[in-house]
Amino acid sequence: MLLKNNTHMNFNELFDVSPAKVATLRERIERLKIDISDIEEQFIRGGGKGGQKINKTANCVRLSYPPLGIQVRMQKDRKRSINRFLALRELVDKIEMRISPRTSKWLKEIEKARHRKSAHRRRTLLKYGHN
Fold this sequence. Notes:
Layout: E1 7-8, H1 19-31, E2 40-44, H2 52-56, E3 60-65, E4 70-74, H3 80-99, H4 105-128
Antiparallel strand pairs: 1-2, 2-3, 3-4
């Protein structure tokens, strides 16, 4: 159920996270040249675990970035402000993957995990032989 119409994101509102994390996110947004006013924000009722608090409050956040057609929905925490921050961070990750995949932190982590798995497989084959 939608409780608030689409509004443009206001980065000046406070987040319940450390100022260092907010500053890091702000730097990434500026580096990627993302116009914060292009991000549409909706607050909707969440679901799942959490009982009455989750069912009564609009703590689930949906952010969309129409220029690239990207949407993110976040409800990891009971606090709306934390969900707002987490959704914005995930949206910036997705935008970065689309705009500059070579510098994307997310893609680098995936590549690192892929390399780690292949190295583990190689070591296992050397130790135990081919099955």
